[in-house]
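Work Package 3 (structural annotation) set out to generate three-dimensional models for the target panel prioritized at the project kickoff. During this period the team completed the workflow that converts sequence records into C-alpha cells, so that structures can be stored uniformly alongside our sequence database. As a representative example, we reproduce one entry of 466 residues exactly as it appears in the project archive.
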Amino acid sequence: MEKLDLFFIPSPLMGHVGQLVELARLFVKTFDHITATVLVIKLPGDPIGTDYTDSFTDHTRIKFIHFPPMDPGLFQDCPTVGFTADAVINSHKPIIRGLVASQFTGPGHRLGALVVDMFCTSMIDVAKEFNLPTYVFFPSNAAFLGIMFYFQTLQDELGQDISQLSHSATNLLVPSYANPVPPSVVPYVLLDRHHWSKRFIHYTRKYREANGIIVNTFQELEHHALCSYDGNTPPVYTVGPLLKPEKPTPDHEVLQWLKGQPESSVLLLCFGSRGWFGVDQVGEIAVAIERSGCRFIWSLRRPPPEGHKGFPKEYADYNEVLPDGFLERMAGKGKVVGWVPQAEVLADVATGGFVSHCGWNSLLESIWYGVPVATWPIYSEQQLDAFQMVKDLGLAVEISLDYNQMNKDQQLVSAETIEKGIREVMDRNSAVRAKVKEMSAKSRMAMEEGGSSLESLRRLVDDIIM
C-alpha cells in the first residue's frame, strides 16, 4: 500500500492541541502505511500550554515541527484569548504554506491531506492551493457542531440576527439537541455579535468547504446529534473518545494522598486551564465543601491580572483567599492545590465525583473513567455541554447550567446550591452514577477493534486514499 503522510495543524489552545496529537497517534498506531507531521503553534503568554506542547517529541512515524513563540506584544489589541489564538494562527499561514509546498518538490511519502483544528480553518485555503483534501478536527461534541451549523443556516439563508436569540421568550428548537435549549445556556461566543461575526460564523462556513469533519465523540453517546445534520454537511467521522495525552506524574502529592482514601470517597473540583473565581465565589465553594463533609481535592487558581485576556496563576498562600481557618479545619479531609493531573486523579479508584467546568475533554475523561460530574460551566461552549450532559444525556447532576464568566452581571452560585450538587454527585446509589458507568463501558468498546469509532476511522482513511 502506498505510504501516506498527513499534516496535523492544532490550535495553540490548551483544550485543543492534545486531542489532535492523540488523533495523529491513533492514525499511525492503526495504519502501518501512514506517517504524521504535527505543526505545533505556541500561544504567547501561556506558560503552562507552552510547557505542555514542548513535551511533544518525535517518535515512530510521528514528527513534530515546533514553531518558535511569538512576541505577546504583537497581540495586545486582541480582546480575548480566542482572538489572540486566531491572530497567532493566521500569522503562521505563510510558513505553513511553505512547508506544504516543500512536500511536492522532494522525495518522500506523498502528502495525503491536512487535518486542521476547528479554529485553523484558514488553512483550508492553503490545502486548496495544492489540491489537497482537508479534514476539520472538531475537539468538541457533535451537538455543538450542530448548533454552529444551525445558526449559520439561520443567518445566511434566512437572514436571522443571531444575537437577537438571546432575547427569545421561548426555548430554542435546535436539531442537534433532544430537548429545547434555553437561551441562557447558548454560549456568549455564539450570541455576542462581535464573537459570532468576527470568528464563529467564519469557522462554520469553512467547515462546509472541508472534505470531512472528524468529531471527538462516539456514536453511542451522541446518536441524536449525529443524525441531525442537514444535507449540506460534509461527511462526519466519529473517532472518540480521544483523551488529552499527559506525562504520568506518579509522585504528585495528590496522587500520593489518594492512595490512602476509601474507594469513591473523594470529590475533585477542577475548572480547566482557564478556570478561576473571585474571592467571594471561592468563599461560597469553601463553605459548601466544609458543610458537605466530603473528602476533596480542589484545584484553586488565582485570577489573571489581565482579566479575560490572560491565564490564571498560582497562589503563593491560599489563606489570602480562603475563609479563616479553612485549611486547618480541612487538613485531614482534603487538599487545596494549584494545577492537578486531572486524568490521573479521575483514574484513581478513590475519586467518586467531579465538579467540572464542562470542557468537552474533561467530560470525556469523566465518562472514560466512570466518574459522574456536577456541572459548573465557565466559558466557551461549556454551558451547552452542561445542558447536554444533564438534560439530554442524564450523565451529570447540576450545580449550574448557565454560569458565564463573560457575563458582567453574573451572580454568585450560593454555598447551598454547591453543597446540594456535591451531595448528589457523591451519591453512590444514584441513577446518574449507574448511567455513567454504563456509558464508560461503551466508550471503551468504541475504541476497540470492531468498535464504532475505530470503524469510522477506517472509513476516513479509505476516503482520504480515494
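The two ends are 13 Å apart (CA to CA).
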